[in-house]
Amino acid sequence: MRAILFGGGLALLFSLLGTRVAINLFTKWGYGQEIRDDGPTSHHTKRGTPTMGGVVIILATVVGYFGALLITQTVPSASALLLLFLFVGMGLVGFLDDYIKISKQRSLGLRSKAKMIGQTLIAVVFGVLALSHWLEDGDGVTPASQKISFLRDIGWLALPMVVAVLLIWFIIVATSNGVNLTDGLDGLATGACTMVFGAYMLVNIWQNNQSCAVENTALCYDVRDPLDLAIVAAALTGACFGFLWWNAPPAAIFMGDTGSLSLGGALAGLAILTRTELLLIVLGGLFLIETLSVMLQVGYFKLTRGKRIFRMAPLHHHFEMLGWEQVTVVIRFWIITGLCVAAGLGIFYAEWVARL
């Protein structure tokens, strides 16, 4: 359990100090954010704010995790390494997108097709490895499962290998893009991700204490390496907390697609590896709401040939257009995330209690 504290603490410290360094360097190098012309006019003042801060979040998480293992003299697990592969891989896709925006001085980076290809490649490799028998532990448990899961695997919903990989791909792409859509106001996505990663840290700690590897009962969780996943979740929480210090309104730096895609990938990876895929819908309810607002807006616009449901999508921009202050939107959306996290953890614990 000491490793969880070390992982979170080291990532927090690295992110808090490293982001200050990144702000200075990115400003010196001219790595400023380009703003969409069709966005809220209040955002035009943000043009030139340093971006690609997600690089610091990624480095802080990796340093926090491996630093914790070094201090506690622990060997990394297959599940944690897979999660970090997904996290860094999705971050690389986002980095390419951000770099194109900066180098070409435009608000659009990678074309949507190229971005989808990159996300798909990382997601499919992760899915195949996570389901592979090569990565079984001594009890024959693979990092991921071919069964659909809510609070644990649903026994009668086993999927063929190809379908299971497709489901994993969908979860990863949908979640990473959901966080990307949410990252439109100072601190919004960072604060929301901090809460959800904190929730997954608690889920992993509980799963470790009730692991089937320790005592195989009806109450146990058949999850591989839950303690190591808790260390990664703690490092992610600490890294987001440290970054939020500088990303809170008014933001001194943006995470960019480097941060939003990597954090979304990590959330999806935690849901898959902890066998709580459907629970992510509750814990990450804000990301679902933001994504649905865009889907509804685009669909309604096409069906009605120009009419809109919202003044602007994603949803946080709608409230901005209604005259809400940016900080008001952010805080209220954080409250929604907090309620979603409380509901998700409550459901998770209630299911265990109901089995007693």
UniProtKB/TrEMBL annotation:
* Protein's membrane topology: Multi-pass membrane protein
Q: Known NCBIfam families for this protein?
A: mraY
What biological-process terms (Gene Ontology) are attached? Answer: cell division; cell wall organization; peptidoglycan biosynthetic process; regulation of cell shape
| GO molecular function terms attached to this record | metal ion binding; phospho-N-acetylmuramoyl-pentapeptide-transferase activity
User: So what does this one do?
Assistant: Catalyzes the initial step of the lipid cycle reactions in the biosynthesis of the cell wall peptidoglycan: transfers peptidoglycan precursor phospho-MurNAc-pentapeptide from UDP-MurNAc-pentapeptide onto the lipid carrier undecaprenyl phosphate, yielding undecaprenyl-pyrophosphoryl-MurNAc-pentapeptide, known as lipid I.
Pathway field: Cell wall biogenesis; peptidoglycan biosynthesis
Binding positions (Mg(2+)): 180, 257
Q: Which UniProt keywords apply?
A: Cell cycle, Cell division, Cell membrane, Cell shape, Cell wall biogenesis/degradation, Magnesium, Membrane, Metal-binding, Peptidoglycan synthesis, Transferase, Transmembrane, Transmembrane helix
Catalysed reactions, semicolon-separated: UDP-N-acetyl-alpha-D-muramoyl-L-alanyl-gamma-D-glutamyl-meso-2,6-diaminopimeloyl-D-alanyl-D-alanine + di-trans,octa-cis-undecaprenyl phosphate = di-trans,octa-cis-undecaprenyl diphospho-N-acetyl-alpha-D-muramoyl-L-alanyl-D-glutamyl-meso-2,6-diaminopimeloyl-D-alanyl-D-alanine + UMP
Q: Which family would the database say this protein is a member of?
A: Belongs to the glycosyltransferase 4 family. MraY subfamily.
Where, per UniProt, does this protein localize? Cell membrane; Membrane
Which cofactor does the UniProt annotation name? Mg(2+)
Task: Record the organism.
Answer: Nocardioides agri
EC category: transferase
Task: Give the main localization category.
Answer: membrane
What's this protein's name?
Phospho-N-acetylmuramoyl-pentapeptide-transferase
Q: Which InterPro entries match?
A: Glycosyl_transferase_4, PNAcMuramoyl-5peptid_Trfase, PNAcMuramoyl-5peptid_Trfase_CS
Q: Which GO terms describe its cellular component?
A: plasma membrane
EC number(s) from the headed UniProt entry: 2.7.8.13
**A Pfam entry, by short name:** MraY_sig1
Q: Where do the TM regions start and end? A: 52-71, 78-96, 116-135, 156-175, 187-206, 227-246, 252-273, 278-301, 329-350
